[in-house]
Amino acid sequence: MVSSGIRNPPERTIKGVLMYPPKGQHWKYTQVKIDQMEKDGRIRILADRSYIDIMGNRVYGVPEFLQSEDVPVDNSWTDLKGYNFNSTYPTENPEELLERVVMSASNEGDLVMDFFAGSGSLAAVAEKLNRKWIVCDIGKLSLYTMQKRMLNIERSKSFENPKKNYKKTARSFQTVNTGHYDLEKIFKLEQEEYGKFVMNLFEVEPKNKTIGGIRINGERKDGYNVIIWEYWKFKDAAVDEEYLHDLHSYLGNKAGRRIYIIAPASYVGFISDYYEIDKVRYYFLKVPYQVIRELHKVQFKKFRQPQSKNNVNDLEDAVGFHFMRQPEVKSSISVNNKDVQVTIKKFLSDFAEDETGQDIENFESLSMVLVDKDFNGNEFDMDEYYFADDLLPKKKKKDDDEEVKSNLKEELKHSKEIKLPAIPKKECGKRMMLIYVDVYGNEFKEEFKVK
Predict the structure, then answer these.
(1) By Cβ atoms counted within 10 A, which residue in 141, 252, 400, 430 is the most buried?
(2) Paired residues of 263 in beta bridges
(3) 80-175 has which fold?
(4) How many Å apart are CA 405 and CA 397, to the nearest integer?
């Protein structure tokens, strides 16, 4: 029932209550029109939603206009909301709007696509309407929001009866990172060329040595040893627990507290980015899907993930691909009878700034942290997300101000540590999964046991 801009007088009486519109918006209908719609039973109050009005007050109960069955739909759909302004995901389109689009433009069994999928409204609607679907987005928050939405679709509203849940689980679907097909080009490289390629990719200095009978291929700049997993010898195997325990039986702690293993992403049998045995951490350097730059020698500008909810759509204007390099993360978890507290002590990206060429400092590149409070060991089902801006002490600032962005960057790199908001222990399962994302979309995944 709202549109952008200001209208005087701004207030309307809706369902017997004097109401002011949300900030920056106005009620799109006159009082006379609203009174008539109430008589026709075409206005309802969504009691489970709220908004901040132009007076700065939080209003509980959002009025919504209902399309009358007696009024034909023309090409101006003023009866439906353009956005779910109270959603946890910015710019989310309501399912009612996408239902009308899909119903009017496709038949059951058709394939529908959304290349700017955001929260995944179209995927959910297509699933409920028995359409096949493909949805795409370059935002990490979007990716995990869509995944969560489909994993939990049975708890969303049914179209047949909005007062009841859909109750059906989603059909099997795949979450695919762009460029997965390019792995085939890597596999066609000769073994020696492949070794040179991946060592250059992850900035590994070649070494030719043996520890405990295991060949070590090189060292990273932090001084720890690197092993290139020879996928051509293990056609039907993977880097899994069995492989790592067998490797550890030879290496023990003779190769240090950290060992890097380079392997194609599709051959790594872990969601977490490391696996620990006897206090030795085996880190996985997954041969990335974004291999265009190296294979085709084309320079692309890295696109950036947002550090604030206000800038969540900024990356839509970015163009380019880049190599995935896991950020270096050091974190800890503390658990008491009431809360679970995660503290990040180090977050460092293995990139230099495009503009200056200077190395990125600690925390400067942190974009967001995603949390699955009850990780099942298979799918990451996001429960909470925090932008970098959410994790810093709050100060008065203006949205979309370049000076604010600069101040955020300075605040981040001068932080000694960053604490996530305490999570009530009763909301957590036996395991938690955290995904730390930098501004270039690189991820580091870490699993914690909640004792």
Answers:
(1) 141
(2) 286
(3) Rossmann fold (3.40.50)
(4) 10
